[in-house]
Design brief:
It contains eleven helices and ten strands. The protein is of the alpha/beta class. The protein has two domains: about 210 residues, Rossmann fold (3-Layer(aba) Sandwich); about 100 residues, Rossmann fold. The strands form two sheets. Strands 1-2-10-7-8-9 form a six-stranded mixed beta sheet, with helices on both faces. Strands 5-4-3-6 form a four-stranded parallel beta sheet, sandwiched between helices. α3 links the parallel β3 and β4. Bound molecules: pyridoxal-5'-phosphate. Pyridoxal-5'-phosphate binds next to α3, β7 and α7.
Length: about 325
């Protein structure tokens, strides 16, 4: 396996299911759509960060840390899964959330139930606020381990190189021909980088197409994913280098910005739910699915293609009032 040399804990339910989406495929008039269920990674609501945390938490344990610290948006799924990983491994958890204290709904409620300490960053810059939290925990006598925003370090991204191997094994067992594209939500870039490394390492004839959730194209491909993919490959002992042009991405669906759900996301959430019984989230997978649907309708993704949508989780955010009120009326 690509990640054999890396320390890893077992906290995810793997392999996640690989399922066809026949009713959604039919409704859209093709292509043949499949779903990789990383919303089912099994840890307190699941999602893509659980895969990353198998490596990130192992790195924390390797240096004898007793506290995981990370940060994100108030409804961060990464923060909730970090809180769950900490609970499962007997570690403390401090989460640095952007902005002012918000009502305990959705992921914020789950952070609370999982026993994490919440620090509200106000207007402080994200990385500064996380560093302050680290120093505070040290001053209190704890041994904190800082997990970067989104878990998107090379060790975290390596999980998605391993996920490509997992997918390849499932495809072989089912005797499936290669997919033309993998489509998924991309934000801090670790999922994207890991999938790109895995696909290149395994020589897959498949486009790894990240849908940007919050970044212009050049920022996502050049400043975020390409370097991380190169560093991830190096961590895995692979001599692979990635430039911005090697990273497939689409940043045409940023809408009103990060976390602003509108008609396209709501429609995608409704279509997946009502054709396949699959729940997407309002921030990431809803936006990526809206892009997928639009690219199919426009013919940019061909009707005869075989496309895998990688579900990266996020369900709890549906229950945050800024989304649930809008969805209830939709
Ligand atoms: C549900 C969901 N999908 C996708 C992503 C994006 O993954 P990445 O940060 O690895 O780009 C996130 C990140 O928080 C997420 O919570």
């Amino acid at each position: 396996m690509l990640t054999n040399q890396l320390p890893r804990v077992t906290i995810a339910h793997l392999p996640t299911p690989l399922e066809p989406l026949p009713r959604l495929s039919q409704l859209l008039g093709g292509p043949e759509l499949w779903l990789k269920r990383d919303d089912q990674t099994g840890l307190a609501g699941g999602g893509n960060k659980t895969r990353k945390l198998e490596f990130l938490a192992a790195a924390a344990l390797a240096v004898n840390a007793d506290t995981l610290i990370t940060g994100g948006a108030p409804q961060s799924n990464h923060c909730r899964q970090t809180a769950a990983a900490a609970a499962k491994l007997g570690l403390r958890c401090v989460l640095v959330l952007a902005g002012q204290p918000a009502e305990a709904t959705g992921n914020i409620l789950l952070n609370h139930l999982l026993g994490a300490e919440l620090v509200w960053a106000g207007n402080a810059a994200r990385d500064d606020a996380m560093q302050v939290a680290v120093e505070r925990q040290q001053a209190l006598g704890y041994r904190p381990y800082l997990i970067p925003y989104g878990g998107s370090s090379p060790a975290g991204a390596a999980a998605y190189a391993a996920a490509v191997e997992e997918l390849a094994g499932q495809m072989q067992a089912l005797n499936l021909p290669p997919f033309d594209r993998l489509v998924f939500a991309s934000s801090s870039g670790g999922t994207h980088a890991g999938l790109a490394v895995g696909a290149r390492a395994l020589n897959l004839p498949t486009q790894v197409l990240g849908i940007s959730i919050d970044k212009p194209l050049v920022v996502l491909t050049g400043e975020t994913v390409a370097g991380l993919a190169t560093d991830t490959a190096a961590l895995l002992g692979l001599e692979l280098a990635f430039a911005a042009g090697d990273i497939a991405a689409n940043a045409d669906y940023l809408g009103g910005g990060y976390g602003i759900m509108a008609e396209p996301e709501a429609e995608a959430i409704g279509l997946f739910a009502q054709t396949e019984g699959v729940l997407l989230d309002p921030v990431y997978t809803g936006r990526a699915a809206a892009a997928l649907i639009d690219l199919i309708r426009k013919g940019d993704i061909g009707r005869s293609e075989r496309v895998l949508f990688w579900h990266t989780g996020g369900l709890p955010a549906l229950f945050a009032p800024q989304y649930s009120r809008q969805l209830a009326e939709w």
